Predict the structure.
Amino acid sequence: MIDPNIAPSRAIESTARLVVTGASGQVGQELLRRAPHARGFGHTALDITDAAAVRAVLEPGDVVLNCAAYTAVDQAETDTRAAFAVNETGPAVLAAACAAAGARLIHLSTDYVFPGTGDRPYETGDPTGPATVYGASKLAGERAVLELAPHAHVVRTAWVYAGAGSDFVATMLRLERQRDTIDVVDDQIGSPTYAADLAAGLLELVNRPDAPRLLHATNAGRASWFELARAVFAGIGADPDRVHPCDSSAFPRPARRPAYSVLSNHAWAAAGLTPLRPWEAALRDALARRSD
């Protein structure tokens, strides 16, 4: 019996050549760590909106894992053109190029394509209805990929962190060192997802071209940002009571955050793909890997 608290070992025995776009991001870096022979392209090395440049790097049989995205959620509200360029035009260019080259595309998307007003985990077939420019641009990208690349997959995920840089977990680690107490919203509920676990799942999907075209992949379970912050504090031996709850009105933002954006992993598991472990266990591993 598999222990759900242990990250599964997923050796990649694929004859396909892997191409990772958005390779400098959290998930892209983890993909290259787990599949070191993949070809990785950051945004400065490959402009995914440039059709000629994309065609030049593809060969028949490639599997492209697209992690490139415009993720500045608040800035997207006024920088609409840039958001749609990266999140819609780029995936459309990749999809068309993959279809022409005989390559396969796995495109990473987001919980923000949903309205965020539900009270149960979103299934892959639930109605979308993004409330932000970022979400609208990502939904447009999904639709382009599914239309232009018949063998592509779209994988939605949520609340991704690696515990480094400026992600939520890294920010909590920094604030724990700097402040006696912190306030964190407790009225936004989602699916915290460790980038390393997501990367492992995507690499498993590489070998499953028969899987459904639209999937969700997050660590199991749900949490508020407040609960996640407390877990970070507790995980490094700090007092979680130093984290205080507040509502979203305490942190007004240009883009409205989803109140509820838990994603159901039913379609992923039903396809025979390995479910991602509970978020609490994944967080423990992320904290153990961190470098102070």
User: Anything to note?
Assistant: The longest strand covers residues 104-110.
